[in-house]
Amino acid sequence: MPYKSALQSASLSIIVNLLMAIAKVVTGILGSSFALVADGIESLADIFSSILVFIGIKYAAKPPDDNHPYGHGRAEVLVTITVVGLLIISALFIVYQSIIHILTPHNLPRPFVLIVLGIVIVVKETLFQIFSRRAAKVNSSSLAADAWHHRGDAITSIAAFIGVSIAIYLGPGYEAADDWAAILAAILILYNAYRILQPALGEIMDENHHHMIDQIRDIAEEEPGILGTEKCFIRKTGMTYHVDLHAIVSGEIPVKEGHLLAHNLKDSIQSEMPEIAEILIHIEPDQF
User: Fold this and answer.
1) pLDDT in tens, 211-233
2) Is the dihedral of CA 19, 46, 74, 144 positive or negative?
C-alpha cells in the first residue's frame, strides 16, 4: 500500500508538471517575462525528476531476492540524490539565463502574466502539502524530494510574481525586476536541494533512528518473558525499516522457549510498527 500511494502521487506529479511547464513557457514568451519562462524550464526538469521518482519507487517496491536480501528500497535514495542534482542544475541554469537577460534590453512583462503565476503558486503549494504528507506517511525520501520540487516551483513563481509586479507597476527602467526575482528563486531552490539531500545521505549512511529505538524498547519491556534489551540498530531501506535487536531473557529457559519468545516479540513489534519489514532478534541470557 505505501508503494501504491507513492506511485499514484508520482503519476499525478508528472501530469501536473507537464501542464504547468507548457502554460508557463507559452505565457512567459507571449507576456515578455523571462522569469516565467525560466520557471517553465524548471518545470520541464520537474517532469524528468518525477519520472525518475516513479521508476525509482516502482523498482524499490520489488520484493527481496537472492541478490538483494534486504529488498530494493535503496533505489529510492539513488533517485532522491539524482533529483537533488537536477534541482541544482535547474537553479544554476536559471541564474545563468537571468544574468544574460539582465544584460539584454527587453520589453516590460504583460499584466496577464500575473494571473498565470497566481494559479501556478496555488497549484504547486497545494501539491507540496499533499505530497509532503504522503511522503511522511509512507516514509518515502524520493516522494519527499518530489514534494520539495513542487515547493521550489511555488517559491520560484512567488519570486517571479513579485518581480513582474514591480516591473509592471514601476514601468520603464525596471524591466529586469523579474530577472532578479528569478535569481533569488534559484538561490532558494539551491537551499531546498540541500535540505532534501541531508536525510538522503543519512539513509545511505545507515544513520540510526533513535525515536524508533525508544519505541521498540518500550514494546519489548511489555512482552512476557523479555527481561530487557541491549543493542538495537535500525536501517531504513526505501519505505521500510530493518531492525537488529538483542533481547535479554532468563538464562535458565531452554533454547526452544527462547526461540519462541523471540518470535512473539517480533510479532508484537511489527504489529505496533508496521513500517518495520524485518527484525532480527538475538537472544541474550540474563546471566552466564
Assistant:
1) 789 899 999 989 999 998 999 99
2) negative
Express each pLDDT in 161-188 by its tens digit. Answer: 888 888 888 877 777 777 787 788 788 7
Distance CA(38)–CA(283), nearest Å, equals: 59
Give φ, ψ of 213 to 5 degrees. -60, -45
Strand arrangement, sheet containing 240-249: 228-237, 240-249, 276-285
- Give the Cα separation of 279 and 77 in Å (integer): 21
Beta carbons within 10 angstroms of residue 70's beta carbon: 14
Which residues, listed in sequence order, are joined to residue 279 by a DSSP beta bridge? 243
Q: Are 71 and 63 in contact (CB under 8 A)?
A: yes
- Burial (CB count <10 Å: 0-12, 13-18, 19+), residue 247: buried
CB 64: neighbour CB atoms within 10 A?
A: 14
